[in-house]
Design goal:
41% of the residues lie in helices and 21% in strands. It has helices at 13-25, 36-46, 62-71, 89-98, 110-124, 160-171, 179-187, 194-209, and strands at residues 5-9, 29-33, 50-54, 80-84, 102-105, 134-137, 140-143, 148-151, 154-156, 177-178, 219-222, 226-229. Helix 1 crosses helix 5 (110-124) and helix 6 (160-171) packs across helix 8 (194-209). It is globular. The relative contact order is 0.11.
């Protein structure tokens, strides 16, 4: 297999050089773009394994690019790490609600970016050595091999991180995960402030799979502890 390919999009050439250097040292093949139009063209032409996307670009913002990616069937499954200098929780939550898988705030440690890229790619890579399972509870079903999620037969589009969180919950239905356990098992790493990010992903999942997101039947909150999926 060839190197995993990562597209890095930022209008700051110094950041591009820094990120490219660390990712290449880690064994990735790096593509670059400095604006949204070039980024989308490169995505459609090269189909990279992962996108590292700056929020503030000269022609369009990362939110708009994320919307376009998630609305395009050919690109919708592309994992996205959003990279930005904006630190407000509302900005982070909006990025996650639009379909970003992770969010890194500038200034950042490039080694942390490499670690998160590896974790995100690792959990989106299928193990082809064994027949993947089909997980089901009530009207919710997941074909892990096909990355196919359905509710009462209706196909549900999930981001790679949403898929991983739901798979973790389905595999241990009825078990109460603390936030830390769920973050580590589903996302592959932990860091300060991740609880709010997890809550955003859970909120997005409920909006997509629950008959009434305000009264969830599948993903249940255990107050003071964390989350669990309904028991079989």
């Amino acid at each position: 297999m060839g190197k995993r390919r990562i597209l890095v999009v930022d209008d700051d050439k110094q950041i591009i050089r820094l990120v490219r250097s660390y990712l290449e040292q880690a064994g990735f093949f790096v593509l670059t773009a400095y604006d949204g139009r070039t980024a989308l063209a490169t995505l459609r032409r090269e189909n990279p394994d992962l996108l590292v996307l700056d929020l503030m670009l000269p022609d369009q913002d990362g939110w708009d690019i994320t919307r376009q990616i998630r609305a395009d069937n050919r690109l919708a499954a592309t994992p996205i790490i959003m990279l930005t200098a904006r630190v407000e929780d509302t900005d982070k939550i909006l990025g996650l609600e639009l379909g970003a898988d992770d969010y890194i705030t500038k200034p950042f440690n490039p080694r942390e970016l490499v670690a998160r890229a590896r974790a995100l790619l690792r959990r989106t890579q299928l193990d082809g050595q064994q027949a993947p399972p089909v997980l089901q509870i009530a009207g919710l079903s997941m074909d892990v091999g096909r990355r196919d999620v359905r509710v009462d037969g209706r196909l549900i589009d999930l981001t790679p991180t949403e898929f991983s969180i739901l798979q973790t919950l389905l595999e241990s239905s009825g078990y109460v995960f603390t936030r830390g356990e769920l973050i580590e098992k589903a996302m592959g790493y932990t860091y300060d402030g991740m609880d709010r990010t997890l809550d955003s992903h859970i909120r997005n999942l409920r909006r997509k799979i629950e008959p009434d997101p305000k009264k969830p039947i599948y993903i249940q909150t255990v107050y003071g502890v964390g989350y669990r999926l309904m028991e079989r």
